[in-house]
Structures are given as structure tokens and as C-alpha cells.
Write a structure and sequence with these properties.
globular; mainly alpha; single chain
Length: 204
């Protein structure tokens, strides 16, 4: 029964984490440029594990019933995503002889900005809170006995596996991104993704 709760947590957690989002596209770019991949992966995993643990401790119910807290997270996250999307859109728009320089900038080649961005995209994101703290916390609370702990452990394991594969596996795509136009396509997709997520935060 407890092992079933663990694998259920892995399944539900994977379904929520694998969906394209701000964390994923950021980590993909860092992995492609090989800038502080391990540190960024560790921050994304640590933040996700922390949020899942908060959900397991019933904090999710408090967050879900606090309109002010949700509004602060929503507005702050949306503004950050808009700016991140602007950077990617600019990189996709510039001429080809400036693309490599733009990519280096967008990939955060300095440790401080890279780590801060990883933390902000992981924590200042209403979707992350709703998915990990509220939704996973609610589903985990339905497990019998100690099942909610195993469910949360399964979701944490899924998070660690996914971000590790995304960050380090991105290097396998490096030959495809040897051409500047490939970076342009990626940047355009990133910009659209960030702005779509930001718009959804204002609309919902």
C-alpha cells in the first residue's frame, strides 16, 4: 500500500513537473550553454522539494485560502516572466552575427544571476505553488495512514529525476543548436512560453 502511494506520487508529480514551464525552459537553456548546470539543478530540486514538503504539512490549505498572498505571488511572478520573455524575444530578433553573444547573456554566464533566476522561477511562480503545495498536498492528504509521506516522497523523487535529466540531458541537443537559427527558434518559443504563462496569471 505504501509503495503504491510512492509510485502514485511519482506519477502525479511527473505529470505536473514535466509540463513546459518557466523552470524547464530556463534549465534547458542553462544546460545547452553548460553554465552552472549542477547548481541550477540543485536549486530547482531543492525549491520543488521544499514546496512539496509544505504541501505535505498542510500549508497548502493556508496558501489556497489567502487571496493576498496568492495575489502577491501572481503579480511578482508575472512581471518577472514578462521581463524574461523580453530578453528571449530580443535574442530571437537580433541579427545572426549577434546571436551567440545574446545567447551567452540569456543563459546567465555569471553565477549570481543564474542562481537567483533559478530560485525566483522556482519560488515566485503561482503555478508552482498551486501544483506542488496545494494540489499535491491535497492529493497526498487523501492517502491512508502514512501514505501521504510516501506520496510526497514519490513526487520529490520525480522532481529530482526530471530536473537532473533536463539539465544534464540538454547537452545531447548541443549539435542541433550549433546553428544560430536553431537558437532563434528556441528563443522565440521561450518568449512565447513566458508571456503566455504571465498572461494566464493576470487573467486567472
Amino acid at each position: 500500500m505504501l509503495s503504491g502511494a510512492f509510485f502514485k506520487g511519482m506519477g502525479v508529480g511527473s505529470g505536473l513537473i514535466v509540463a513546459i514551464g518557466a523552470q524547464n525552459v530556463f534549465l534547458l537553456r542553462q544546460g545547452l550553454q553548460r553554465h552552472f548546470v549542477l547548481a541550477c539543478v540543485l536549486i530547482c530540486v531543492t525549491c520543488d522539494v521544499t514546496l512539496i514538503a509544505l504541501g505535505a504539512c498542510s500549508v497548502g490549505r493556508f496558501v489556497a485560502t489567502s487571496p493576498v498572498l496568492l495575489q502577491v505571488i501572481r503579480v511578482g511572478g508575472a512581471l518577472f516572466l514578462i521581463e524574461y520573455g523580453r530578453r528571449a524575444a530580443w535574442s530571437a530578433w537580433v541579427s545572426q552575427d549577434r546571436i551567440l553573444r545574446a545567447n551567452s547573456s540569456n543563459a546567465f554566464s555569471e553565477r549570481g544571476p543564474a542562481l537567483r533566476t533559478a530560485a525566483v522561477l522556482s519560488l515566485l511562480n503561482p503555478h508552482a505553488w498551486l501544483d506542488t503545495v496545494v494540489l499535491l498536498g491535497a492529493i497526498g492528504a487523501q492517502q491512508l495512514g502514512q501514505g501521504h509521506f510516501y506520496f510526497s516522497a514519490g513526487a520529490m523523487t520525480a522532481s529530482a529525476l526530471w530536473f537532473s535529466c533536463l539539465g544534464f540531458g540538454a547537452q545531447m541537443l548541443a549539435p542541433f543548436f550549433a546553428k544560430p537559427n536553431s537558437w532563434r527558434v528556441l528563443d522565440a518559443l521561450i518568449a512565447m512560453t513566458m508571456w503566455t504563462i504571465a498572461a494566464s496569471l493576470f487573467i486567472n
